[in-house]
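Private note to self, pasted from the team thread so I don't lose it. Backbone tokens:
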């Protein structure tokens, strides 16, 4: 029988992961034991085809699983996301007849762990520009020089997908996407991750000092700026949908904690009755539940359309940024209501809700941010701004 999110991530595994999360957070430590258990369960091969040793899941399955994992340990889920993003990109391309990332699926099936080395300080162009240089080498390879920030899985990845600007080739400029290896002497990971939240992700800065991508690992050379290439669509779609799943999971867990707190806490004003009988508390939980209830159906519908090769044309990017922004903003709203319901105990170190309150803030910084998402949606509905 094929695995499902519920059988691959059973309650006992999730409980062990949940129990370790406070220690990882307190010690600013990487989630080594979580990764070992998830790897042993086959979770890192979820989106890899069966013929390459994977589980052959659809993106819908991965979304549901990431919601479950994030409910136990958001930082673990966020970091695992970066590996799943690359396997999802490869799956999206493969489903559409493009085998340019088949090597990635084979290697992921064999146990390699992929990191996402795209983000750069001060680069608000994201996929459409780069501060990193990509220098062409004889034979078709490239050497990358630059700094990549928020490189989750930093202690564990063995392959890093990255990009840089080729300004030297005759057809330059080109944004060049390629994959470098962990044992490359020109790759360094800085020990600089000491943050407010998502601490176990260890999303450290990666320094590329001429890191080499072999010719068969150079997967795209694209013009800078917005690009309709399926590779770009695959990155954008995978990142936004899987990211939304993590924050949807945070919101769901916060709501559960708020309900438990309302039943646990009592009120002298109510003659010793639980706060579940207090009309103000009931309103807060209802408000959080109404908001949270809308996220999963939208998220699964978008993932299902990606699996089903549905053509939304120019509206695709609006749908993707919309689900990301709604999921992250709703999670923040739900966690805030849960903290208000649960009271001052959440302000103490060690509180799970207090940790969720810190973790959920990371959603503000992931692309697409609120401003660029609104610009994307406005363009989809109104057309571009007239010059």
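Design output:
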């Amino acid at each position: 029988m094929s695995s499902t999110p519920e059988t691959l991530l059973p309650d006992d595994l999730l409980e062990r992961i949940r129990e370790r999360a406070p220690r990882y957070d307190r010690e600013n430590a990487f989630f080594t034991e979580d990764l070992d258990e998830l790897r042993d369960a086959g979770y890192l091969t979820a989106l890899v085809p069966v013929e390459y040793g994977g589980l052959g899941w659809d993106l819908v399955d991965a979304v549901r699983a990431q919601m479950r994992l994030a409910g136990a340990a958001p930082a673990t889920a966020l970091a695992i996301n970066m590996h799943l993003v690359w396997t999802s990109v490869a799956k999206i391309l493969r489903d559409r007849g493009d085998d340019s990332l088949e090597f990635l699926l084979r290697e992921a099936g064999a146990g390699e762990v992929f990191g996402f080395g795209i983000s750069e300080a001060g680069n608000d162009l994201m996929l459409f520009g780069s501060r990193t240089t990509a220098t062409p080498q004889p034979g078709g390879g490239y050497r990358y020089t630059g700094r990549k920030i928020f490189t989750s899985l930093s202690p564990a990845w063995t392959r890093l997908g990255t990009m840089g600007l080729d300004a030297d080739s005759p057809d330059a400029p080109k944004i060049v996407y390629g994959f470098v290896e962990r044992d490359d002497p020109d790759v360094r990971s800085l020990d600089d991750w000491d943050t407010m939240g998502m601490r176990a992700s260890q999303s450290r800065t990666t320094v590329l000092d001429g890191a080499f991508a072999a010719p068969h690992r150079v997967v795209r050379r694209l013009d800078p700026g917005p690009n309709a290439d399926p590779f770009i669509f695959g990155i954008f779609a995978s990142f936004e949908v899987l990211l939304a799943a993590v924050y949807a999971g945070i919101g769901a867990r916060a709501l559960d904690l708020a309900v438990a707190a309302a039943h646990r806490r009592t009120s002298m004003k109510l003659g010793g009755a639980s706060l579940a009988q207090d009309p103000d508390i009931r309103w807060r939980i209802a408000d959080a539940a109404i908001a949270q209830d809308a996220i999963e159906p939208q998220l699964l519908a978008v993932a299902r359309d990606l699996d089903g090769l549905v053509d939304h044309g120019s509206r695709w990017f609006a749908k993707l940024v919309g689900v990301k922004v709604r999921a992250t903003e709703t999670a923040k709203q739900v966690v805030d209501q849960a903290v208000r319901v649960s009271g001052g105990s959440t302000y103490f170190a060690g509180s799970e809700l207090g940790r969720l309150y810190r973790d959920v803030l990371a959603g503000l910084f992931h692309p697409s941010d609120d401003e660029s998402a609104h610009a994307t949606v406005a363009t989809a509905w109104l057309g571009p701004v007239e010059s």
